[in-house]
Amino acid sequence: MKIVFTGGVTGGHFYPIIAVAEKCAELAEKKKIVDARFYFFAPSPYNKKMLFENALEWRRVSAGKMRRGFSLLAPIEFLKTFAGIIKAIFFLWVVYPDVVFGKGGYGSFPTLFAAKILRIPVIIHESDSAPGRANIWAAKFASRIALSYSEAAAYFPKEKVAFTGQPIRKEIIIPIRSGAFEYLHLEPSVPVILFLSGSQGARVINEVLLSALPDLVTRYQIIHQTGELNLAEVMQTSGVILESNQHKNRYKAFGYLNDLAMKMSSGAASLVVSRAGSTIFEIAAWEIPSIIIPITDSNGDHQRKNAFNYARSGAAVVVEEKNLTPHILISEINKLLENKDGLEKMKSAARSFYKPDAAEKIAEEILSIALGHESR
After folding, report:
1. DSSP bridge pairs for 221
2. The dihedral sign for the CA sequence 328, 334, 337, 339
3. Are residues 120 and 185 in the same domain?
């Protein structure tokens, strides 16, 4: 049995693929499928270590961005995609998998196009409330469509849709509370706020947080995941801002939080401030109240829709970028952390929102289709 995974070039696409691949491997072992092989077709490996640990063989398949509106780069992007389609057809012909799992994003398009040409069964998963163009197109020939938000069902053929929730890697699902404050060099008696700016970093969040730092560290401790490209600038700026502040050690900045650091950070945190991508589902799994700040101009306005869909569950509040100032950020944080009953209700709502068996449901369907295709 052979399964190909494909997706865009961000963590929001890559990490759910790893979660599903983990479950596919577990189920294959349980079903005594001894010849299962997994592949990852994408423009980049994203994280070679995780691919190796999960026995995913990477094949480079180039893909051009699907740009909105006129762009001088459009011909170059088209050539990248065309070359990727040719490569994907060749790789799929050689591997000839029993099923292709697509996670969306422009990086998945060439492989899904090749799978369509070769008549290989396709399953796709959509993480957002408003689907991306690649998944809307792929839905026309996909066998099954898994969704993280039930609201996205309106965009797809209803007979193909299953509301599964978001697959999350098992390594980060359960926070570590014991020893978290010691590991992160934090004060046990001071509340912790975890700011997640994403793998690329969110400049707007970083800038507002830095402006609010002198006030925030008087009452709270801050774990700030800045994005690796922003770490040096953030460290330099925060060093100047907090130079003479007696509480400067309450601010901890990291370019990237590895699995252990993320589990420790989520274990220590009383509140999370984040963008409205797939991180929402990790926050829900951790059962932590949150402030969600969606990107203003995301494709299809999906981040804003994600944020408000999550907020309607009662697990979070939304602050839009146009309203985001240091004063409003501080005010929202104080209001939430001073309301103990409200925090407990938000934790309960997060618990209800999270679907713990998402990866398993998707993996079961992938194996079911793969075994059916293999037997033909």
Report:
1. 192
2. negative
3. no
Closest CA to 211 of 329, 332, 317: 329
How confident is the model at residue 152, as a pLDDT? 96
CATH number at residue 88: 3.40.50.2000
Three-class HEC string of the chain: CEEEEECCCCHHHHHHHHHHHHHHHHHHHHCCCCCCEEEEEECCCCCHHHHHHCCEEEEECCCCCCCCCCCCCHHHHHHHHHHHHHHHHHHHHHHCCCEEEECCCHHHHHHHHHHHHCCCCEEEEECCCCCCHHHHHHCCCCCEEEECCHHHHHHCCHHHEEECCCCCCHHHHCCCCCCHHHHCCCCCCCCEEEEECCCCCCHHHHHHHHHHHHHHCCCCEEEEECCHHHHHHHHHHHHHHCCCCCCHHHEEEECCCCHHHHHHHHHHCCEEEECCCCHHHHHHHHCCCEEECCCCCCHHHHHHHHHHHHHHCCCEEECCHHHCCHHHHHHHHHHHHCCHHHHHHHHHHHHHHCCCCHHHHHHHHHHHHHHHHHCC
Res 318: pLDDT: 98
Q: For residue 34, what pLDDT is reported?
A: 85
Residues 9 and 75 in one domain: yes
Nearest residue to 172 via CA among 271, 254, 279, 272: 279
Low-confidence residues in the chain, pLDDT < 50:
none
Domain housing 368: 2-166+356-374
Q: Are residues 347 and 208 in the same domain?
A: yes
Cα separation values, 191 from 97, 186, 265, Å: 50, 10, 12
Whether the full predicted model's pTM is greater than 0.90, yes or no, is yes
Q: Are 116 and 91 in contact (CB under 8 A)?
A: no
Identify the pLDDT of residue 175: 96
Split into its structural domains, the chain has a count of: 2
Q: In which residue are the tokens 């194996």 written?
A: 367
**Tokens read off for 32:** 């005594």
208, 337: one domain? yes
pLDDT at position 10, please? 87
